[in-house]
Amino acid sequence: MSRVRTVLGDLPPEELGVCDAHDHLFLSSPRFPGQELDDTVAARAELTAFRAVGGAAVVQWTPHGMGRRAADLPELSRATGVRLVCATGLHQAAHYDPELLDQLRGAGLAELFVAELTEGIGTTGVRAGLIKVAGGFHALDAHTRWTMKAAAEAHHATGAPIAVHLELGTGALDVLDLLCGESGVPGDRVILGHLNRSPDPVVQREAAASGCWLAFDGPSRAHHATDWRMPEAVRALAEAGFADRLLLGGDTVLAGARSVDGGPGMPYLLRRTRPRLEAELGAELVDRILTEHPGRAFGVDWR
């Protein structure tokens, strides 16, 4: 029976509620000095603000080794009433100390992912509900191939979905060739993030035809195409028969992007993105994308 693995335990997909399918409460990286998401008070305030505009669940894509603070997530979920899903996995090599990567190569990456999905993250007792990995810009380097093959192994052992950061929205078809082609991961167990940042309708349709999920996450930076092309892109996919393959998220990565710190933050998804998409697609479909689809994408018949 399918269940979504939250930080407070597994629950039926239909109980997830209105869901931000790709976001971050905590995240740190040497690439973002001084902009770390590492404040529990701010995280609680952000979840409270999201709850106030109708949000019920957030899937945090922060993977292993990037300050995800799994031990703090259960109390944040209890205090705010927002269901939280935590990730295992590994991001691009640039986000890590090389010594840590060397240790992980020696220890067995797939085994780490499986342990965090089934036994818990460290001593926290919090079990991850998805595996997050990342591609490169129009290419899959050795690090990417290593992490994605480990993610595929962990998927086959547990059934967990694999969420993929596409660098500037590129490389989607190469990712699918590796995960679904070489590694045998079913398409509906793969979630592609940021595909909208490289708004190629042909690639989007070809990716959707694999059965994977397309996560449209933003709001966009000034040089990205996320916001102004997203409604048209989503409508085109729906008209092409892929309305049931869509997810929406906020992807708050830096401290200054939080709504409580003056940015758009998590509430933007429901405050601005939702009505904009409803005008293009109708409220019924947008409601399904925000409620039904995340439960299907992250629901697992856990092994």
From TrEMBL:
Pfam families registered for this protein in UniProt: PTE
Keywords: Hydrolase, Metal-binding
Matching InterPro entries: Metal_Hydrolase, Phosphotriesterase
Gene3D superfamilies: Metal-dependent hydrolases
Modified residues (N6-carboxylysine): 132
Family recorded in the similarity comment: Belongs to the metallo-dependent hydrolases superfamily. Phosphotriesterase family.
Protein name, entry field: Phosphotriesterase
